[in-house]
Amino acid sequence: MFTGMIRPLATSKTLAYVGGLALLVGCYSLLPIWLEYSRYHDAINTPSQFHGVLSFVLGLLLVFRTNTAYSRWWEARILWGGLVNACRNLGIKLTSSDGLTDETRSRALQLIVAFPVALRCHLREEIDDETRESLELLVGRAKHIPQAIAAQLYQIVWDAKRSGRIDGDELRVLDAELLRLMDICGGCERILKTRIVKSYRVFARQCVGIFLVSLPWAIVHDFRIWTLFITIITAYFMLGLETVAEHVETPFGYDEDDLDLESLCATIDTTVHETFSHHVPA
To answer: What is the DSSP string of 146-207?
Structure first.
């Protein structure tokens, strides 16, 4: 148990960063400690009531900040979980339909497994050359590649409907899953582009800063040399909550706290290929 608490400090970049900041705050606390042991100790006269009120306000701010950030992360996880199910269901329904040829099924397979990859690159606003080339071969050049892939899937379904290979009931069944693809894409874009209000984030950081600056002055009379350790521990958790909230509210990147989008894309690729392998010839 103890190892599990200490090891992340060496392996986690986020916790190591927070630990470094906490040590800096601890170094700052040496100033009031020095004054306490010097002939100027009477100069320290910070009212403890002020710090108690500030602690209450800061607690409310951090609770709201953390809950809001985590709700964004959890919503993003729900959306990508829904994407896994939508791709699986779409694959099952397309392979179960008799109105599609082997050629169109094969193309539908490529489009379905490409959609989560394209969405991942779209959310991160970066794409490697190999992935870009494969997506351009599939749907051509497009500014919004996930939308282009969804449009190609709709084209396959509507071509089958116009040629009479599927009826209106089958079209409605397939449309329900196709509609979810762009709904999920839109939900992820909303999380990406609508962060917590900047003024609130700045206000929360200011409150944390004032709290940590005033903390050693408020407790040095009571704890003396132990003020150093209490300040470091308090700063570690206060700064940790703010830093983790900052990372969690943008869950599509590469941080250790972000969603493992590569794993989710691989899961979709594996399960959809397994579904189509029984219908599409090699």
So the answer is: HHHHHHHHHHHHHHHHHTTSS-HHHHHHHHHHHHHHHHHHHHHHHHHH-PSPHHHHHHHHHH
The dihedrals phi and psi of 99, each to the nearest 5 degrees, come to -90, 0
Q: In this structure, how many other beta carbons lie within 10 angstroms of the beta carbon of residue 209? A: 14
Pair 109, 211: CB distance under 8 Å = no
Residue 279 sits at φ, ψ, to 5 deg, of -125, -35
Summarised one tens digit per residue, pLDDT across range 124-166 is: 988 888 889 998 888 888 889 999 999 999 998 888 888 878 8
pLDDT in tens, 45-82: 666 666 677 777 777 888 888 888 889 999 999 999 99
- Candidates 264, 257, 261, 259; CA nearest to 66 is 257
Take residue 195 and report the two structure tokens written for it.
């962060």
Q: Please, are residues 120 and 276 in contact by the beta-carbon 8 Å criterion?
A: no
pTM as predicted:
0.83
